[in-house]
């Protein structure tokens, strides 16, 4: 990853923050894209304090104009784009019977349309790279499992995989790979508020007996972005500690 130009959307916190830190640690020049400036700049400073290269660009991935500005910022600051990590996503909870059309549209706009807009905006520059990579942050929720209140979220994460497979065929003509990582339960800021009892129940559902770490997901992304993964495209990599394997809690 040395001197590779990497964009990480939603890179200011959670999984995105972990991805940005790991890529920077491996020598990449990272553009952290998010809506929250304070958290974004804080992550940039942490990377710089550790000797890495990073900068922040404020953008809403559901806004095509702002996404084009993101791509241009990476070109101006780092000379191009080698890796695009589409990590930005939202997951507000709402039961199906109560979910509004606006809530459905918002989640689809950020999670699924946002990935499409980012890929489209960055593609002309990624084509110039000798190691072009597109990485999508999907989830086990939607493609494999379901969770109450997340029908809109699950639909977007499953939709990403349909998008990826056709994109893989088209991008292969330019020697660009596109793959998706599907995390299970990973410890991040959003889980802190759920309480110890909830976290304990989550751990009991995972064969490895613990929640994942953002770095666990980040290293999967790093592999798919590497030279060693040059012959892998249109594929998914589940990072869940075995969470999707047991038939039931009894199987544990």
TrEMBL record:
Catalytic activity, reaction form: a (3R)-hydroxyacyl-[ACP] + NADP(+) = a 3-oxoacyl-[ACP] + NADPH + H(+)
Domain of life, per lineage: Eukaryota
EC supergroup of this enzyme: oxidoreductase
Assigned EC number: 1.1.1.100
InterPro entries: KR_dom, NAD(P)-bd_dom_sf, Sc_DH/Rdtase_CS, SDR, SDR_fam
A GO term for molecular function: 3-oxoacyl-[acyl-carrier-protein] reductase (NADPH) activity
Domain Ketoreductase stretches: 4-179
Keywords: Oxidoreductase
One BP term from GO: monocarboxylic acid metabolic process
Homology family: Belongs to the short-chain dehydrogenases/reductases (SDR) family.
Protein name: 3-oxoacyl-[acyl-carrier-protein] reductase
Organism from which the protein derives: Geodia barretti (Barrett's horny sponge)
């Amino acid at each position: 990853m040395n001197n590779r130009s990497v964009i990480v959307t939603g890179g200011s916190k959670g999984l995105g923050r972990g991805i940005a830190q790991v890529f920077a640690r491996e020598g990449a020049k990272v553009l952290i894209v998010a809506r929250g400036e304070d958290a974004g700049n804080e992550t940039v400073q942490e990377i710089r304090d550790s000797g890495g290269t990073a900068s922040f660009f404020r953008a809403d991935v559901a806004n095509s104009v702002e996404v084009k500005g993101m791509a241009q910022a990476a070109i101006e600051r780092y000379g191009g784009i080698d890796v695009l990590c589409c990590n930005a996503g939202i997951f507000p909870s709402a039961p199906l019977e109560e979910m509004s059309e606006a809530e459905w549209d918002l989640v689809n706009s950020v999670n699924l349309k946002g990935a499409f807009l980012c890929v489209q905006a960055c593609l002309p520059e990624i084509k110039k790279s000798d190691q072009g990579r597109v990485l999508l942050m999907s989830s086990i929720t939607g493609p494999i499992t379901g969770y109450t209140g997340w029908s809109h979220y699950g639909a977007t994460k499953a939709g990403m995989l349909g998008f990826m497979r056709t994109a893989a065929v088209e991008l292969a003509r330019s020697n660009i790979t596109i793959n998706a990582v599907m995390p299970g339960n990973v410890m991040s800021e959003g889980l802190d508020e759920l309480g110890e009892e909830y976290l304990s129940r989550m751990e009991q559902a995972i064969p490895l007996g613990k929640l994942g770490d953002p770095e666990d997901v980040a290293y999967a992304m790093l592999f798919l972005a590497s030279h060693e993964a040059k012959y892998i495209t249109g594929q998914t990599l589940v990072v869940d500690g075995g969470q999707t394997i047991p038939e039931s809690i009894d199987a544990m």
